[in-house]
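User: Let's play a game. I give you a shape written as tokens, and you guess the letters that built it. Ready? Here's round one.
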């Protein structure tokens, strides 16, 4: 079993920077878990504490039920892959991949078997005699993965491993790493600042912000049911439009947008956490794909003026001005006939609103899929 558990794990650096606030998190055996968040939010520190490269200030770290706080990195049965590959330039690819096995005094034949097995899986067999300088960035990153693989670790830790690659290669390597994870059937913990990378790779994603775990969930749940305004805006591209407004209780619940009141759908209001009041201040969010241009003026539509247009080829993003925020983004068909300055009628999918408390910025909606009594780390930690 190679599950990893963090119980109230925190990190305060010597200069008193609080990098990670007490964190409860359980990474399942064979799971692909991604830490994502903006630069400086504590992702790498968390990963480095799991690796044993950074001392834990407080709390307990368990790998496969064993408390490992005081075990050195080499005794933790983990392997880490770094952004900068960290290959030895004077060694061949064969020697680079096998280096850790040599240090651990594996026999020559065992080393050879493991190196060739990893090289085979990674498509490096024809490059084993070469030096790193003659390989491309993607191939070098595969060597770094190979070097981790030959150790047959319980857990792979990957810290922004694709950041040095160009955009096209990054997409190709994502797919390779996902395939590798399936093949090796081992726990992978992956750090990235790129939400698209996180969404496409993770079985679950842990979103961090300012040393806090905001939410840990599947990509689908993060996108559909963000627990905080931060997650709502961080996950998704182009991002969700979020603005300050008020909700009103008439015969139906309504929301004010651009001075107009439009209805909230019954599917949505049935999920409203009890205790919300008439004229309550909220943050409301709506994703670009949940607003459409419409010819019908009804209680789900409003008028707004086109501010800017982005033609993407596959889609068109129309940014409209509303009273409550600088711009609301609408995803439209690329052949939509609109111009800057036009007043257009927009219809919102009334069950797709996201509502957050205006002070703590936490969701006011229950997730339909979230069982009432899930383990603690599945919930917002704050
Ligand atoms: P991320 O990986 O999300 O970019 P880090 O874990 O690297 O974030 O850093 C979290 C916070 O800890 C940041 O404020 C960073 O400046 C600080 N930090 C990181 N390493 C050190 C260190 N060795 N000494 C002091 N502060 C550090």
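Assistant: Ready! My guess for every position:
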């Amino acid at each position: 079993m190679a599950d990893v558990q963090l119980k109230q794990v925190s990190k305060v650096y010597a200069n008193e920077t609080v990098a990670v606030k007490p964190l409860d998190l359980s990474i399942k055996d064979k799971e692909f878990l991604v830490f994502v968040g903006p630069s400086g939010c504590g992702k790498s520190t968390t990963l480095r504490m799991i690796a044993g490269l950074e001392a834990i200030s407080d709390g307990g770290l368990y790998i496969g039920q064993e408390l490992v706080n005081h075990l050195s990195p080499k005794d933790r049965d983990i392997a880490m892959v770094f952004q900068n590959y960290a290959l030895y330039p004077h060694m061949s690819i064969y020697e680079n991949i096998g280096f850790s096995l040599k240090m651990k005094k594996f026999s020559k034949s065992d080393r050879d078997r493991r190196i060739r097995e990893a090289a085979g899986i990674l498509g490096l067999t024809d490059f084993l005699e070469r030096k790193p300088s003659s390989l491309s960035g993607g191939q070098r990153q595969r060597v770094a993965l190979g070097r981790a693989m030959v150790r047959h670790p319980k857990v792979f830790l990957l810290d922004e491993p694709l950041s040095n690659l160009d955009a096209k290669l990054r997409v190709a390597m994502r797919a390779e790493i996902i395939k590798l994870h399936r093949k090796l059937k081992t726990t992978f913990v992956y750090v990235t600042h790129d939400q698209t990378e996180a969404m496409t790779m993770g079985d679950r994603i842990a979103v961090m912000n300012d040393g806090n775990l905001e939410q840990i969930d599947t990509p689908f749940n993060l996108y559909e049911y963000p627990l905080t305004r931060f997650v709502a805006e961080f996950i998704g591209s182009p991002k969700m439009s979020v603005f300050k407004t008020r909700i009103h209780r008439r015969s139906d619940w309504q929301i004010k947008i651009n001075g107009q009141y439009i209805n909230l759908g019954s599917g949505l209001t049935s999920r409203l956490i009890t205790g919300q009041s008439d004229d309550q201040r909220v943050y409301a969010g709506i994703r670009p794909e949940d607003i459409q241009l419409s010819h019908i003026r009804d209680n789900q539509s409003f008028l707004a003026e086109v501010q800017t247009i982005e033609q993407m080829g596959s889609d068109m993003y129309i940014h409209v001005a509303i009273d409550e925020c600088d711009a609301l983004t609408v995803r439209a068909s690329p052949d939509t006939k609109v111009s800057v300055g036009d007043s257009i009628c927009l219809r919102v999918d009334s069950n797709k609103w996201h509502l957050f408390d205006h002070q703590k910025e936490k969701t006011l909606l229950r997730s339909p899929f979230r069982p009432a009594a899930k383990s603690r780390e599945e919930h917002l930690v704050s």
